[in-house]
Amino acid sequence: MILARQVRYVFFGLTMLGMTGPALAHHSFAVYDHTRTLNLKGTVTRWQWSNPHAYLDIDVRDADGAVKHYTLEGTSINMLQRVGWRSNMIKAGDQVKAVAAPLLSGEPGGLLLEITLSNGEKRELPVPAANTFKRTPEPER
Amino acid sequence: MYENRIDGQLLRTFGLLIILIACTAKFAQSAARTQQSSVSTPDITGSWERARDASIPPQPQPPLKASYLKEWQAQAQAAREASAKGQPIAERVVMCLPEGMPGMMGGPFPMEILQSKGQVTIIQEAYTQVRRILLDRQQKPIDDVEPGFYGYSIGHWDGGTLIVDTIGIREDVRYQNVPHSKDMHIKERISFGPNGVLRDEITIEDPAVLEKPWTFTYGYRRMPDYQLLEYICEDNREYADEKGLQKIRLDPPAR
Known about the structure:
The complex is a heterodimer of chains A (141) and B (255).
Chain A: H1 2-18, E1 38-48, E2 55-61, E3 67-73, H2 77-82, E4 95-102, E5 109-116, E6 122-124
Chain B: H1 2-40, E1 46-50, H2 66-84, E2 111-116, E3 119-124, E4 129-135, E5 152-158, E6 161-167, E7 185-192, E8 198-205, E9 214-222, E10 238-240, E11 246-248
Parallel strand pairs in B: 4-5
Antiparallel strand pairs in B: 1-2, 1-9, 2-3, 3-4, 5-6, 6-7, 7-8, 8-9, 10-11
């Protein structure tokens, strides 16, 4: 509950700052589709704990057994740490579920909005203006 | 002989008296200064984050001279259109370059202010940006300052207001993409406003580019229990392509 409050606080803070001008929008998220989300289930190949943003690489197996690799961009690790994330929460080989706003280019990548860790714990990312990304109930893949 | 001895004694006594008076005056002066500074210099040491407050006015548009304004507006329009098409123009932060001055005062990450003898140091968490304001010094001639991201800042306390003058910002280090000349001065007045909000009233003076000085204000709220985190920009998978557009590397960095 405390964590949820912290997340909301950071969300609120970032949204507020986001409204004050372009100087504060450090890195543009305009490359991502704001109208739909991907629901991915796969194996982590790399969890890149870095600034300005973290990255999650996952292999997703489709119904025919073919593997497709996705690169999901996260937020700054400083923002993640402020809401309780640690670098060791995710590691290569973990089975995770991810909700992501896809790249508009159609390439296999997206903006990571939410993750369900291998232990079943669900976490949202403190993405600035996260409410501008519409969640759609696309089938899991 | 006797008279000479008297003269010598008198001289010594007189000399000692002069030294004593001088010392007392000096001590009183420095005590007064200490008392004055302890009364009027606010404690701004600590962690701060950007805050909105009714006392902080909205930022006006830069009063650029006509030709510069036209170019700036055209660039802003192009950036908006590129973003709307889902293909934003890469900002310098994508290349792991920090904002420099005065952008670093605008957050959005927390910043730390440290007051030490003769210096106020400001650290912005994002990109671990550091600026040093040297107190009670003369400003240098602009040509004596090697241009950089943070320039050369001098300041002094005027009552409760820290007055700062910064010169020597590289011309390619642009705040909100606003052009400036090598002669730009960034003047700041840092003080407490209403509601415990720390204000930084920033005035850009640059007659070569601006019709008149451009003033805007940032507000900050104290973060009593926050210690700044480290921030290194590394292996950024956002990059600028050959057209200067922001892209994402889908292959992880090799290491």
